[in-house]
Amino acid sequence: MLAFNIKRRLCAVSANFVRQLGKQPPAEPIIEDAEPPLELPPYTEEQSKLILNAINQQGAEQLVRYDITKARVNKLNNWKTRNGPLRELSDIFLIDGFGLKVVTKFYKSLLEPAPSASSGTKTTKASRTAPFITPALDEQQRLCISSTVGVRIGVTSVSWARLELPQTKYSPSLLTHWQHHEINDKKLHLAELVRRCLYVVHQIPQADCYVLENPQMAQASSNPGSIDQQNVNIQKAQVTSMLSYALMSRTSSDESKKNVFYLRRFLTARLFNHLVGTERVSSEETILGMMRTYYNMEDYGDQDEQSNLQNQVQFPSDLRTMYSKVERYQRELLGQAFLLNLAFLRLVVLRDQESIASVSRNSKKLPSEQELE
Fold this sequence. Notes:
Layout lengths: L1 H22 L21 H13 L2 H4 L6 H14 L16 H12 L21 E2 L4 H6 L2 E7 L3 E8 L8 E10 L7 H14 L5 E5 L20 H15 L11 E4 L3 H5 L3 E2 L2 E2 L3 H8 L21 E2 L2 H9 L2 H22 L3 H13 L3 H4 L1
Parallel strand pairs: 2-5, 4-9, 5-6
Antiparallel strand pairs: 1-6, 2-3, 3-4, 7-8
């Protein structure tokens, strides 16, 4: 009898508990931390319509010319075949491999003028040429460059040439400084070498950026006494390092812009056809030919030339006289510094298409850097 009463009371408590639960509002579902939705840049209604029409109406052969890989174009076309055309700009995120960064670049290229069908290449990637310099140059900084200094470093000498870009493209660039400095001794104590390098840096004029030829790198070897290790001249490497550091320090510490760049080895010789087999030839004839152009004459101001002359150079009379009076080996070193700077100006700063095409063609026929070494 006692057990029956206990069982009846437990049933009453359970029924009362169920009634109380029924009166409580439903609990809100627990949502774990969800990824924030992908937000595209704000597009106008006209831009959105233009993007959707370009994606839905063009095939793979047309879309691949924009800033998108061929693999993603195939995924996009397969998705459209199964699900129909895109109705919203955000529908593209439903396709595997399309993140916010990829889609933003793709949509931006769709809003630019359509690339020519005859070219068969992506116009948006035309700037991705061979890595001419190290480190890479920011596009905004490139547009702000108005002066450059080319520095040619040898074992016992340093030469430099400064070029100043004109205000308009109808005038040539101006050679403002051209100098050669002898270090003389090959075996200097480090303290004396530092002192001389600081003096050289003091002589090098100010500019927006400085360009050197990419130095030869030492190769790791399991045999420390290997003859291969002697290919790198220690003093030249020390001078390059000290000059680079001193020139880099000319920018303020809080400034992220780079001001020292290294042009790929032998690129200058390839651009100006100074390679015969695996040997460099003298640059003197090239320099003298540039000096004979009409804008290096006294009556340059009377010329009415409407072609692009920025990639050409005007030599002041005092620098032409200096060049003609120095020793022949010094003329060669001055010429190398000048052409190094001019190659940087044409290939990187001005992006002269004829110069880039010339280097691209020659790079297939001429020996590589490893072969030349």
